[in-house]
Amino acid sequence: MTAPQAEAVIDLDAFRANIAALKACAPQSAFMTVVKADGYGHGAARVARAARDAGSEWLGVATLDEALALRRAGDRGDLLCWLAAPGADFAAVIDAGVEVTASSTDQLAEILAAPATVRPKVQLKVDTGLSRNGAFGEQWTELVAAATVAQMGGAVEITGVWSHLACADEPGHPANGAQEAAFNAAVDELRAAGVEPALRHLSNSAATLTRPSAHFELVRVGIAAYGIRPDPRMTYETALTPVMTLRARLAAVKRVPAGASVSYGHTWTAERETTLGLVPIGYGEGILRTASNRAEVGFAGGRARQVGVVCMDQFVVDLGDAEAARGDLVTVFGPGADGEPTAEDWAEAAGTIAYEVVTRLGGRIERTYVGESE
Asked: Mind telling me which Pfam families this protein's record contains (predicted)?
């Protein structure tokens, strides 16, 4: 069988080990693995199954469609979704046993009006300072009042309350303490109205690693489960391994003279005779065009520089005088254990974050899974 032209190899053993290490950071809390955006580019159904194997009591996704896709894939555990525009089909997810989020009184009304056959389980989202979704101030007071009336009337079960930190990847940032205090105040207001939430959750990956006071009954871990630091400047003792290795087989190899220029606009010109290799993936697969002439790949035990503008289907690497042939493997990024670049390295080259590097991958890249349980 011919090896794939380009593949993302997903190491599920590493994924499970990451979850185990992260669970140990919050041993008194339940654990949610976030698998939104197709499992951060790793394949939601496969990583969801591995997360359950590793003891993740909860899964989290953004949209209702993502939640339903997991149910169709066979997941039956606790599952929360939290992002829905007006007109969303809440009935389908409620009947599928998915917990939904209400971020406003309007959204709670939509949930209550959904023609579901079971009572909805709802978690309330409070905006503690991120200024995205969630209610704050008078909006929160109104949401608490509406949720209390609905629960007392038997129309809904309020199971939790949650929020999201803006600066947890900077552990010393004053916003972290301010948001935690705002969250506690919001919970107190809910309790004073007569609703005792079984779950409070505020911690993302960074706070799970560094802020025990914010662990509460549940922690939500996304990018760290995939072995990528929430911020490359963060330091912590927990050992995590990047789960994805992106590699491709060279589609062409050619020797070019000094003065040969590469790709659109001739933004790179060889200063000496060299060997060029053609990697058959490009921005059509999510390779960041802004990394042009700055990123590197792993090749033959060393590194090779990406040269010229990244194209839709392909990019070029300067292999120097290394022996190379069509079909040879290039590692675009991986864990870094063998000297290859990491997703963080590509993020730095592109002026972005590693989250974007892995979540945008798709197109003609095949996913291959290793370490999958029976």
From this structure: Ala_racemase_C, Ala_racemase_N
- Spatial separation of the C-alpha atoms in residues 172 and 207, rounded to whole Å: 11
Annotated ligand binding at 312? The verdict is yes
The CA-to-CA distance between both ends of the chain, in Å, stands at 23
Residue-by-residue DSSP string for 217-240: TEEEE-GGGGT--SSTT---S---
In tens, the pLDDT along 165-179 reads 999 999 999 999 999
Q: Is 108 exposed, middle or buried (0-12, 13-18, 19+ CB in 10 A)?
A: buried
Shortest CA distance to 247 belongs to which of 291, 298, 211? 298
- Among candidate residues 23, 36, 121, 125, the one labeled active-site is 36
Furthest C-alpha separation in the chain:
79
Active site residue 36: yes
- CB atoms under 10 Å from CB of 195, counted, come to 18
Q: How many angstroms separate the CA atoms of 189 and 156, rounded?
A: 19
Enter the CATH code of domain 12-225: 3.20.20.10
Catalytic residue among 226, 254, 264, 283: 264
Tell me which H or E stretch contains 268: strand 268-269
**DSSP secondary structure letters along 117-144:** SSPPEEEEEB-SSS-SSSB-THHHHHHH
Task: Please tell me what DSSP assigns to residue 284.
Answer: G
364 annotated as a binding-site residue: no
Dihedral in degrees, nearest 10, Cα atoms 367, 226, 19, 204:
-140
Cβ(74)–Cβ(98) below 8 Å:
no
Do residues 315 and 282 make contact, with C-beta atoms less than 8 angstroms apart?
A: yes
pLDDT in tens, 79-134: 999 999 999 999 999 999 999 999 999 999 999 999 999 999 999 999 999 999 99
Calculate the CA dihedral of residues 116, 119, 120, 123 and round it to 10 degrees: 170
* Residue ranges covered by each domain of the chain: 12-225, 244-370
Would you say the pTM of this structure is higher than 0.85? yes
Considering only the top CATH level, what class is 244-370?
A: mainly beta
